[in-house]
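MODEL INPUT / OUTPUT PAIR
PAIR INDEX: 1
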Amino acid sequence: MTGREEQKENDLFFTCSLIEYIARKTKNKRSDTVDVLGRAFIEKIYDLADVYHSDNIETVSDSFIEKSGLKEGTFDNVSDAKYAVPSHWDIGKIYKRLILGISREKGLSVMDSLFDAYHSFVTDKIQDYNSSFYYDAPQNILNAFLDGKIE
């Protein structure tokens, strides 16, 4: 470990932040963005995150949008927000913690946990910036995922 967290945790943080950035840019739901990018591209982002992190996120996102063929959608949770919008880095951190928790609790790989997280009902709650769910404690978000409900 060279910083405050393990390198692969930081790589996951960047991967999730880039997914959020791409989804906002293309106005797509996060699950749809993950599906179109596909496992191969997401694994590439995760494996080379330290390299991509050094580049301009606009350039990196454009490259993956073009390579994956991700089309412009109609889901615009940023424009629909009535309050301050969390940054793509803020949301990336939420997903990173959720994915690591899923991996730990369910004994899944990080990549399997990523796909589980982005395809769960929790994603609908996180991407609703008019709710306060994304502000909840990381353990509460994980518990909601594991329990299949929000208490």
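PAIR INDEX: 2
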Amino acid sequence: MAAKIMNKGPQFVRIGVQRNLLPFGIAMKQKGSSRFDYFINPNQLAEYLGISLDELKRRCAT
């Protein structure tokens, strides 16, 4: 959803969060695996995009 709102590909967001290049989420490596779990903080994403949280919610609903 974050990638769609940003008009970027999912891989852009995944790698950006993994490498701490995007300041709105965290990537947690699964124990015993090469896979990651992701958390995107809606407040931080809205701030990064320069929009209100209500606007972010509206964009997520569409």
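PAIR 2 NOTE: The chain has a mean pLDDT of 96.
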